[in-house]
Write a structure and sequence with these properties.
With about 150 residues, the chain is of the alpha+beta class. The chain has four helices and five strands, in the order αβαββαββα.
Length: about 150
């Protein structure tokens, strides 16, 4: 592959990652059960990665949030991809749970990866920061922006 082809492929990947931020249509925030959003994201992940294994800790009751479901699914898929890539042993399931407090709902995703060194923790979400080869370091940055547009964090 030539340098030009590699650069072009890199730009295509970069544009694909940035496209959720530059869509022209306005997103409508609706009330939806977070379990439904998570279920849709998990189905999509299994289509993309058939060997993907997850251990879902079921949340016992409906938990409605105001959001753009498509946006939140994008964010969940991003986090799941990151967890999948971090797994040391691919046979270990990724553990997912839902939590809530007085002001917010959370989806917690845990993998068996090494974790980020403490010296890099302050860089999480910074554009172009990645410890992985062949990554642009934009996915967490984009996810943070999308969550903020949905009144999340």
């Amino acid at each position: 592959m030539t340098a030009l082809q590699e650069s072009t492929r890199g730009l295509e990947k970069l544009f694909e990652q940035l496209s959720p931020l530059i869509e022209k249509k306005a997103r409508t925030l609706i009330s939806v059960d977070i379990r439904t959003i998570l279920g849709n994201a998990l189905r999509e992940m299994k289509i993309r990665l058939p060997d993907f294994r997850v251990k879902e800790q079921k949340y016992p009751r409906q938990l409605r949030v105001f959001c753009s479901p498509e946006d939140i699914i994008f964010c969940i898929l991003s986090a799941l991809r990151n967890a999948w890539e971090a797994q040391i042993e691919k046979n270990n399931p990724i553990i997912i749970s839902i939590a809530e407090d007085e002001v917010c709902a959370s989806i917690l995703i845990a993998d068996s990866g090494e974790g980020l060194p403490k010296k890099h923790m302050h860089l999480i979400g910074e554009p172009f920061f990645s410890t992985k080869k062949d990554h642009e370091g934009l996915e967490i940055f984009i996810t943070k922006i999308i969550l903020a547009k949905n009144n999340g964090r």
